[in-house]
Structures are given as C-alpha cells and as structure tokens.
Specification:
68% of the residues lie in helices and 0% in strands. About 5% of the residues have low confidence. Keywords: Iron, Metal-binding.
Length: 151
C-alpha cells in the first residue's frame, strides 16, 4: 500500500505536506467501490487529486526556480503530462456507460495512480533533494535562496 515514509522528505515543509496529501487522496481513491455506486465518489476524489496536484506542481516549480534547479524544464514537462493523464482518467470515469466499464477504468486507475506517484517521486522529485538541502543551508544571496526559498 502506498504510504508516506520519512525517507521521502524533501524540504520538511510545504512540498512534503503536499506529497502526504497526494498519498492520502490516492489512498482514498483506492478504497472506493468499483461498482456504479463508486463513480460519483471516484469523480470527486479524482477532481480533488487533480486540483491538488496542479497547485502542488506550481509550488514545486516555484521552489525549483528559486533554487536554480537544473532540471526544471524537464520536471515541468513531466508535470504537464501527469495533468493530462489525470484529466484522461477523470474523463474515462465520468464517461463510463455501464458499471462494468466504470469497474474496468477503476481497476486500471487503482494500478496507475500509485505507480504514477511513486515513479514520478522516485525518478524526478527525489533528484531535487540535494538541491533543496543546499538551498536551505545557503545564506540569502539576493537570488531568493536560503531556507525561505523552499518553504
């Protein structure tokens, strides 16, 4: 089961809280019923996850810009692809014409959402950890760096 671990901490602040909330939203989705009664709840949780993720991605990109993160453009492109993926899942959940089709989409999303989070986190977000730590230790240098840049 997808769960937060202390080893996942990036900034001991806003980014970590965002990641914890994303995990909680994914876990809420995973326990929803795959029958027709789960469709409205699934739509609501996915909408909340999408909106939360978009806010988080903007916050993360702002931190990356503030600390001069060298992979910002690549990371931003990944965020855009993840937003498209979430939109596609939402459309499929809402468009399912039968309980069977919703159940199928729900089953696929149950597999995809934890993978999406862990894959992006492990391959992209963890790459920031060293850069964030350096920025938190640096005194302000007129470019917005220092502990406040990553809060």
């Amino acid at each position: 089961m997808l769960e937060w671990r202390d080893a996942m901490a990036l900034d001991n602040g806003g980014l970590d809280r965002d990641h914890q909330e994303e995990i909680a939203l994914i876990r809420r989705f995973l326990v929803l019923p795959a029958g027709e009664e789960g469709r409205p709840l699934a739509s609501a949780v996915l909408e909340e996850l999408r909106d939360h993720s978009r806010r988080h991605f903007l916050r993360e990109e702002k931190v990356q810009a503030a600390i001069g993160y060298p992979h910002l453009a690549e990371h931003r492109a990944q965020h855009r692809r993840l937003c498209v993926l979430l939109d596609e899942i939402m459309e499929q959940v809402q468009a399912g014409e039968s309980a069977f089709s919703f159940g199928y989409v729900k089953q696929k999303a149950d597999q995809l959402l934890p993978f999406w989070f862990l894959d992006h986190f492990a391959k992209a977000d963890l790459r920031m950890k060293l850069h964030i730590a350096k920025a938190q230790l640096s005194p302000r240098n007129g470019q917005g760096q220092g502990r406040d840049a990553v809060r």
